[in-house]
Amino acid sequence: MSLCIFVEGGGDQRKTTSACRAGFETFFNKIVLPGHRPRIIVCGSRQSAYNDFCNELEKSLRSCDGSILLVDSEDFVITATVWEHLKNRRGDGWERPAAASEENIYLMVQSMES
Fold it and tell me: Which of 18, 40, 76, 96 could serve as 83's disulfide partner, Cβ 3.0–4.6 Å?
């Protein structure tokens, strides 16, 4: 078992999700020692990433030692917490899962999409 990172992006085709996963794996291969690298789960849409992350946290027998959700910030973050930003952001309205903390959510900066 390992750390799982649920990533927004990669589209909805196998070719594009594979390319996205390969990019993240190349990145982590350069900075994380073998045996400690996270499992990258490319989810496609933003909502799919959130749903997949929540489903993983709700399982009674988790397939991951720990889970992280990585999504675009979409807007400037002006709230005290990331979960508050995602709850208040139009189009999201996401509740923080009971089993999640601020250590389980990370945002890609707005300029990544530019």
Answer: 96
C-alpha to C-alpha distance for 10 and 42, rounded to whole angstroms:
6
Can you give the pLDDT at residue 92?
96
How big is the chain, counted in residues? 114
* pTM of the predicted protein model: 0.89
Joined together, the tokens standing for residue 102 give 């601020």
pLDDT digits (tens, 9 = 90+) for 57-113: 988 556 788 999 999 999 889 999 999 999 999 999 999 999 999 999 999 987 655
Give the whole-angstrom CA distance, residue 63 versus residue 104: 16
